[in-house]
Amino acid sequence: xxxxxxxxxxxxxxxxxxxxxxxxxxxxxxxxxxxxxxxxxxxxxxxxxxxxxxxxxxxxxxxxxxxxxxxxxxxxxxxxxxxxxxxxxxxxxxxxxxxxxxxxxxxxxxxxxxxxxxxxxxxxxxxxxxxxxxxxxx
Length: 138
Ligand code: CMP
Known about the structure:
This protein is an alpha+beta fold. It contains 7 helices and 4 strands. The radius of gyration is 14 Å and the shape is globular.
């Protein structure tokens, strides 16, 4: 069944000007791009988006990083999109990510890890809706 998942190309990757290579890898892996935009996350939106991590010790660092420069948010669709996209990006910590994954290729650390991916089907729907109105999706 078709699922939605949200990709965020994080500020480290945009600073390195590798957003094009990342989008190419995602397209080559068979994901359809339903919507895409480059934005500057506000403190308030970063805080809300990562609210689930509010009690974690890295929450403040994560929000500061995610508002440190522009990001590219991409709504993706595919059969089994959530698991397939997580496989494509690799483990949160690039040191543990499999060869060939986006994080293995492009991420610097656990916090500056190039891309975000939704962690469940329900969160895929919720996170796409966080950034896109339905009329913005093709
Ligand atoms: P992401 O997929 O965007 O979802 C939550 C983010 O928190 C995660 O990617 C990492 O960038 C970040 N994160 C997770 N664990 C740690 C950690 N131990 N230290 C710093 N950042 C972390």
